[in-house]
Amino acid sequence: MTDYIWLIPILPLISSITLMLGSAYLGRSVIATLGVGSVGLAAVLTGALAYNFLHAPEPIHVVYWTWMQVGQFDPSIAFYFDGLTLVMMSVITGVGFLIHLFSSEFMEHDNSYARYFAYLNMFVAAMLILVLADNLLLMYLGWEGVGTCSYLLVGFWYQHSANGRAARKAFIVTRIGDTAMAIGLLVLFTELGTLNIQDLVAAAQAKWQVGDVIPLLICVLLLAGAAGKSAQLPLHTWLPDAMAGPTPVSALIHAATMVTAGVYLIARTHGLFLLSPDAMTVVAVVGLLTSLVAAFTALAQHDIKRILAYSTISQIGYMFLALGVGAWTAGVFHLMTHAFFKALLFLGSGAIIHCLHHEHDIFKMGGLRSRMPVTFWSFLIGSAALAALPLTSGFFSKDLILLQAYQQANIGPLLWVGGLGGALLTAIYSFRLVFIVFFGHANTSPDREIGWRMAIPLILLCALSLIGGYFSLPVEKVFPIDDNQHPDQWVELVSISIPIFGVFLAYLLFLGRQLDPGFLIESASGRWLKQFWYSGWKIDRLYDLALVNPYYWIATIARNEPVDKFYQSIVITNQTLNAALSKMQTGRMRGYIVSMVIGLIGFLGLSLFFVAGAV
Amino acid sequence: MVLVNLILILLLGGVVAAVSERVSSTTPRQVALLVIVLAFLYLVSELSGLDSLNQLQPSTPNDPNSWLIHFKASWIPAFGISIEFALDGLSLLMVLLTLVLGAIAVSASWTDITERHGFFEANLLWTIAGVLGVFMALDLFLFFLFWEVMLIPMYFLIAIWGHENRGYAAMKFFIFTQASGLLMLVATLALVAVYRDSMGHYSFSYFDLLNTPMAKNTAWWLMLGFFVAFVVKLPGFPFHTWLPDAHTQAPTAGSVILAGILLKTGAYGLIRFTVPLFPDAALEFSNVALTLGVAGIIYGAVLAFGQTDFKRLVAYSSVSHMGFILLGVYAWNELALQGAVMQMVAHGFSTAALFMIAGSLQERLHTREMPKMSGLWQSMPRMGAMAMFFVLASLGLPGLGNFVAEFLVLLGLFQVNPWLTVLASMGLITGAIYSLMLMQRSFQGEPNPQLETKTLTDFGSRELLTMAVMVIALVVLGIYPQPVLDIAQMTIASTLKFGLPGAMP
Amino acid sequence: MTLSKLIALAPILILSITIIVLVLHASLKRDHKSAWYVSALGLLITIWGSYYASGYAQQVTVLLKVDNWGLLFSALIVVSTLTTLAISRDVFLAEGNRKEEYYLLILLSTLGAIVLCQSSHIVSLLLGMELMGIAVYAMIAFPEEDALPLEASIKYLILSACASAMLLFGFALLYAATGDLSYAGIGSKVASAYESNPMLVVAGTAMVLSGIGFKLSLVPFHMWTPDVYEGAPTPVTNFLATVSKGAMFVALTRLFLDGKFYQFPSLIVALTLISVASMLVGNLLALRQENVKRLLAYSSIAHFGYLLMVIVGFSSLKETGEILNLGRDALTFYLAAYILSTLAAIAVVANVVGEKTAHIEAFTGLFWKQPLQAAALMVAMLSFAGIPLTAGFMGKFYLITLGLDAGLWLLLSGLIIGSAIGIYYYLRLIFAMSSPLGDPSVVPSKHSLSWRDALAFVLLLSVLYMGSWPQPFIDFAGV
Fold first, then answer.
1. What is the rounded CA–CA span in Å between residue B352 and residue B151?
2. How far does Cα A157 stand from its chain's mean position?
3. Which domain range does residue B291 map to?
């Protein structure tokens, strides 16, 4: 029953290779069929797999071949499939399929249609390998693979060098995290002698006590990797820039799947993190700080995609918060619901951009409610879920996170309050977006309608965003049982009401205009703060000053090979000596005789010296 | 005799290629390709007859009969010099790599040589013959002979068919290797003298010299002589400065051979000679070597980033990559050493491909300066895609050969020296920086309006076929490297024995 | 005098007879061509004579010691003379003058050289040296209408005279100290003479070595070399570089060994310094030299610096003679390699530029015009640089082995540094030859092979043969 599991990543991969090789020969409809169909097929197969798994929920482990075997080191090309994998695969293939379908219309007029689908399929394949891998090295393959596809897709429109810059930034910043993770792998193998995730967790728990320092080190290194890929502080700066790619790419890679790989990694290796409470606290704090910083930043943005990007960072922060407080299931749950509603929002924004001559600035939109109804409703539902308004999917997952955060042993209430602040901000900025874009005065008019291939994904995702909260994840056997007591009633009440209050506030500020914060914004500190938030807390600037510029500087001064100066000096010495000696070759005999005589005198003098010494 | 024949095929093939120019100017390259393919087929057919290849037992270093093939004939008996060739796993890998890359080099320069075709192809074949000799000679005198003699045709390749500053580059290349080679010669002769003093007769045979007893101090100096020669060739920091010039100025085939194969002779020498001949001294020296390796990785990467010349950038990336080999050899364990061997093979393909792309660009644009390029993807998407692939391979994308190599090296090194490993893994980041910059400045970005993009022709079927060979090689190395690891294993297991205190075999 | 002694003297006798024949011939009928043939034939027979005499090696009177080693170099010297004759042919024929005296001079000089090779007495040394030298002065100035050869000749004459004066005075001092003039006699008495009168011995040897140092153009007695090399007609340059220097070095070795000079540390230190200085100065001077003849002059300074290593190496002579054998082999090999390589190089230079200025530009693109000539010059350069498969490499091989055995670290460093510098200018010539700048349309010439190509080819092969199959030479020299 499991012998087709390898087909799921291979199908998109084959499609991708076919598209690359055949790009010049295939028609657009063939390209679309291949690109969308392969992921669709993968989704169907995943569905079949899910059906089997839900009936007989046993993990599946398939080994294909030994990747490389050197002494003790023998990672395999092998897949491990359990409930967590199933959730991830469903999101990847399911949401992935919808986004592919959406893309087939969105990108229809692009010259590099085949290249686009080749990359996108490749991404799906890599992402599937990432979640299916039974060992960390194979996961690392998928991990870097998705990073590469992200790089390729962010820089898809390579003619603009800004896109290239954004793509490189995405790759390099995540590579910093990846390198930390690779070092983590080195530590793990050196300490435990295996990289197989199940064996490794078991070995770790047998070898170390809770609170030992090596697990802490390992967890921090893995966290760095996760933070890079999932755009958490301090490695989050690439994600907003990554919006340079086509919008469906942002939906798939930079919202629904790849950026949650870090969450998956930590959830997958939670056995290690449980050994290090300190590391978990770090995860929680990083998550919370990220979610707050990003939320403030989102508040000040104009670009529709950047708002969504910061919101993604912020929401992944919530997931990290969940992981950090041991709410594994809640974290993964939020991962899933977030995939639904954030994909929805991105696709919605894609529809807007598609229909508004590539306009990104929300203040140049407005009044789109009646003219783009499908998109409006998508956005409304998506934003509601994002703001965690009751009954939407986002509500269920975020509520779960906040409640479990409250119960964390040390700083739980603090985390809870922070999380609430974030929730408030989320509600404000998401509805700021809705109110400004869809209500009020129309600044532009759409020049086209979206077709069925864009509408269907939006509608389906709307449905998922609404009902996604009622799914129950088949992860009971993956994560330890959560035995927390239910917190007090008031905690839950506050948690529920805060987002609603946020929406109300947003209404007052941006639609009803009952509150006019003008005097605040116009004041000196207000303007500074706005600029500060707008620039993403000037973190990019900081990195430029601290890392990027020095690197450029060193590379510039060193580019002419300082080491060679040493060898040059040898050459110059030789040339100087050559010149000096050549000058003596005057061609005049008296000089020659002098030289001979000096030689003779020297010879005699030396002899004398020796004789005198001997006597 | 197989090994002698192999070299003879290439040497005579070179003569035939040179003469064949009288038929037509395109005949030499066909002859050259044919000769290499013939040599390859000949070797493969001879190998398939060997039983020992199927078992791949670790060879006992000082028992030549345990090697795959061994040949010995007296040459200068007065000094115990003989014509001695032998093949074990490591040499076999290197020989195969040499032949494959040799064919690729011929293809890479299929059209960019406009004059003196015959002599060009002859030099190419002679260089390959010399390199094969280096990989197979097990008499130290003979080894040195090939080591030096392979320089001459290479020198001609650079000096005659090179670019604008070829004289300087060729000279620098020759002097660096020759001067360091002299040190090796002195060390070799001193080693033989030590051997004679204890055994009473001369011998240059590797198998005899392996366990020469000598004073610690002597061993240290002799080891240094070999080390410098090999590290110059590798090239390791800070002896690398000949490489950017030589690579940049060489014609495409020259760069391919130089980067793909010639650099590997340095690595091969370290594994084959420096470590086994002077195990204790080499082990003592390993911290210095490791530091040089890490310095090379970072230095090469930073300087690569600073370059504007496409080929120069790739050349510096080689410096960076070769640092991993130094780490792999001197980390002194199986993982790292396997990684080093893997790096030799994988880097051979990835860099050869990048140089071939550089050569194609130069042929089409008449410049290597990246500021004069930009957005070439638009007019040459196939070349762009290939460049992207090999750039990704070179930055160590998992699933491709270079990743396996670098990860194994890091994994092995970590067990020995975690802090240096952390520094070395910075190479993964810096590697990404210069690699992506290469892509950005040449193929991505706004198409340069000053370029006559209409006249640019994309890769044709010959180039694509050549590229495909390297793509497939890297992918296979990346996801199923086991055959290479197994073949190398027979050498590595025996090499490592030298590192064990008191465990001289 | 017995028959066996006469046979032992065969090379000298045959050459002398040839000279007499030549004189008679010239006085009867002035014919350039036949004079050439007579000389060549005489030289060929002399080579045979050297071979034949090797079975009769012995001390012939107190003056001459005939042994295989000396005969080998006699033969080599005759080969050099033959080459000189070969490349002289065109130069002197072209001028249409009656130049038979030239052949007389060259044979006389050769005779002097052979005597020098076999001398075992100060008298025969002086005799051989002056016979060789005086003929050379005349040969240098042979193109009497040109200023440059005349200047060179006069320079060489006057400076030689100075050197000879030093040499003579040195011998006088040695005679005063030891009361003997044969090498062996000096050798047996010099130690005790040193006890009684050290200054006399040391000063004497110093002056003798200075004088010989001049002929070998060792630093600081080297300054005449480039001027004379450049000024002399190319064949004479060849003669000077091979015959004159080679014979002188053989004589020096004999004197040094049989005279037991190696026991004086002052000499060893001085020779070490001279050797290192010659290696470095010679190579440095050659570094940017544009004139190929001057370049070869400087290069020869360096090579005799390397060769001097052997002489210094004799200082570690143990009574077992191990170093002696190795040193003598090294010397034989290096000197032979040097002579052969120089012959190849100058033969090509003579063919390419003749008597015109040997500027390096004249060699640009030679590879494409005259591949055989270029190949010969290239192999010669590689041999000088010490690249394997050439004779020069085997020479270096021997020198390094000797240096390691005798522990001559300073000299070894000098050798390595000098060789590293040397590569540059040897390669420069190779680069010029292979440079396609000449004329790309010129395809390798298809004209039939001339005798020049044959000569170049033979020399090229012998350099390669000696380098790649040295065992026969080793066997021969070891006899």
1. 19
2. 20
3. 278-505
Tell me, what amino acid is at A491?
V
Per the listing, tokens 């510098």 go with C421
- Residue C146 covered by a domain: no
Residue A166 corresponds to which tokens in the numbers above?
């954004």
Which of B142, B173, B189, B239 is the best substitution to test chain C (most C C-beta atoms within 10 A)?
Answer: B189
Contacts of B182 in chain C (CB under 8 A): 386, 416, 419-420
CA A518 from centroid of its chain's CA atoms? 36
**Is B412 inside any structural domain?**
yes
Residue B293 in any domain: the answer is yes
Residue A458 to residues A89, A250, A393, A463, A500, Cα–Cα distance (Å): 20, 15, 16, 9, 24
Q: Which residues of A touch B414 (CB under 8 A)?
A: 183, 186-187, 189-190
For A:180-239, CB contacts with B below 8 A are: 182-183, 186-187, 189-190
Phi, psi of C64 (to 5 degrees): -120, 140
**Which residue in B has a C-alpha nearest to residue C407's C-alpha?**
B190
Classify residue B96: in a domain, yes or no: no
Cβ B428–A559 below 8 Å, yes or no? no
Which 6-25 residues of chain A touch chain B by CB within 8 A?
Answer: 20, 23
**Domain-embedded: residue B326:** yes
Chain C's closest residue to B182, CA to CA, is: C416
Interface test with A, best of B386, B433, B458 (most A CBs within 10 A): B433
Q: Tell me which chain B residues have a C-beta less than 8 angstroms from the C-beta of C401.
A: 189, 192-193
* C339 falls within a domain: yes
**A107: phi then psi, degrees, rounded to nearest 5:** -100, 10
pLDDT tens per residue across all 479 residues of chain C: 688 888 889 999 999 999 999 989 888 877 778 888 889 999 999 999 988 888 888 888 889 989 888 898 999 999 999 999 888 876 665 555 557 788 889 999 999 999 999 999 999 999 999 999 999 998 888 877 778 888 899 999 999 999 999 999 999 999 999 988 999 899 888 888 888 888 888 889 889 999 999 999 998 899 999 999 998 988 999 999 999 999 999 999 999 888 888 888 888 889 999 999 999 999 999 998 999 999 999 999 999 999 999 998 888 765 556 777 888 888 888 999 999 999 999 999 988 887 778 888 888 888 888 888 899 999 999 999 999 999 999 999 999 998 988 888 999 999 999 999 999 999 999 998 888 765 555 444 445 567 888 889 999 999 999 988 888 887 876 65
- Number of structural domains (chain C) is 1
Mind giving me the DSSP string for C176-200?
HHHS--BHHHHHHHHHHHHHH-HHH
Give the contacts of B370 (CB within 8 A, at least 6 positions apart). B308, B309, B310, B313, B438, B441, B442
Of the residues C266, C293, C294, C295, the best mutation for testing chain A's interface (the one with the most A CB atoms within 10 Å of its CB) is C266
Q: Domain of C310?
A: 276-479
C371: in domain: yes
Q: Report DSSP letters for C214-280, one per residue.
A: HHTT-TTS-THHHHHHHHS-HHHHHHIIIIIHHHHHHHHHHHHHHTTGGG-HHHHHHHHHHHHHHHH
For the entire predicted model, the pTM comes to 0.91
Pair of tokens at residue A611: 């004789």
Q: Is C404 in Cβ contact with B185 (below 8 Å)?
A: no
Give the integer Cα–Cα distance in Å for B96 and C403. Answer: 40
* C344 min Cα distance to partner chain B (Å): 19
DSSP codes, B468-488: HHHHHHHHHHHH--HHHHHHH
Global ipTM: 0.89
Residue C198 lies in a domain: no
User: What is the number of structural domains in chain B?
Assistant: 1
Determine contact, residues C113/C246, Cβ cutoff 8 Å.
yes
Residues C301, C303: Cα–Cα separation, whole Å: 5
> What is the residue type of B145?
L
